[in-house]
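Sequence in, structure out.
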Amino acid sequence: MKTHVDIDERVLEELMRIGGFASKEVAINTALVEYLRKLKRLDLLAMRANVPRVGDIDALRAELRDR
């Protein structure tokens, strides 16, 4: 999908230099994908905080260690 957006050239140049990208398109698409992954991880971590813990974590760790 083609779109017109204003992007800070300094940020884009730094992204391309550090990431070793050959084109602006690849740099921007990769950055978007990575940012989306980060948001999804944060969302999962937030959901994890809402799950009640059941059982004895120390006993579970000991059981796994003894295997």
